[in-house]
Design brief:
Elements lengths: L1 H26 L6 H8 L3 H7 L3 H25 L5 H15 L6 H13 L4 H26 L9 H21 L5 H19 L6
Helix pairs in contact: 1-2, 1-4, 4-5, 4-6, 4-7, 5-7, 5-9, 6-7, 6-8, 7-8, 8-9
């Protein structure tokens, strides 16, 4: 019985998030009401509030859903990176970028970022920061995997190096969501130009 209740709860939460993705994209985050989401998800308004205290909670939960999926995809790259430091880093980074608009529009990303900056000590602010920290840690894990394979210099500290690379890809993503005219192709090209020289610097020289 407990298992059935948990399954029903997960299904209702999934329907609410799916409704949020659809409604926020169609009408804009600010215009959508909790009542609209409840109607589309075919649940009561009270049910929505059982799971999420505010519309901001729903938005950050959508961000978390997106990040969990890219982390799962990134884990397969970390487990078996492609050859070449630059190619490995860019495959991971591009995986983050290419999935970024799967659930969220640029307007939704801007709003989520604003929520995390305006109230960093709230649960939503802390959750957003924790998601960023997990992405940064995955970049570090990839560098360590490349070190173990002998492709990145062994004397480099992977953690601060991973943080530097993540901070750059994250800042470039902020520039991307700020500019509605910027395409994913442009973002990828600019980050590739910035990442490859760094990859060359940290790569271990081959024999001879």
């Amino acid at each position: 019985m407990t298992g059935l209740r948990e399954k029903q709860k997960a299904d209702r939460k999934r329907r609410i998030l799916e409704a949020a993705v659809t409604q926020f994209r169609a009408d804009g985050y600010r215009a959508v009401r909790i009542e609209d989401l409840a109607e589309m998800a075919e649940v009561s308004v009270g049910t929505v509030y059982n799971y999420y205290n505010t519309k901001g909670d729903i938005l950050i939960a959508t961000v978390a859903m997106e990040v969990e999926e890219v982390l799962a995809s990134g884990a397969t790259i970390v487990a078996d990176p492609p050859a070449g430091v630059g190619d490995a880093l860019l495959q991971l980074i591009f995986g983050y970028y290419d999935h970024s608009l799967e659930y969220l529009s640029k307007e939704m990303w801007r709003t989520a970022m604003a929520l995390s900056i305006q109230a960093p000590q709230t649960p939503n602010g802390q959750r957003y920061s924790a998601l960023d920290a997990r992405l940064s840690a995955q970049v570090t894990d990839l560098i360590r995997a490349l070190q173990a394979r002998g492709e990145v210099k062994a004397d480099l500290d992977a953690e601060p190096l991973g943080q530097v690379i993540f901070n750059n890809l994250n800042q470039m993503f902020i520039e991307f969501v700020k500019d509605d005219a910027m395409s994913l192709e442009t973002l990828r090209a600019r980050v590739a130009e910035q990442t490859r020289p760094v990859a060359d610097l940290i790569a271990r020289a081959g024999p001879g």
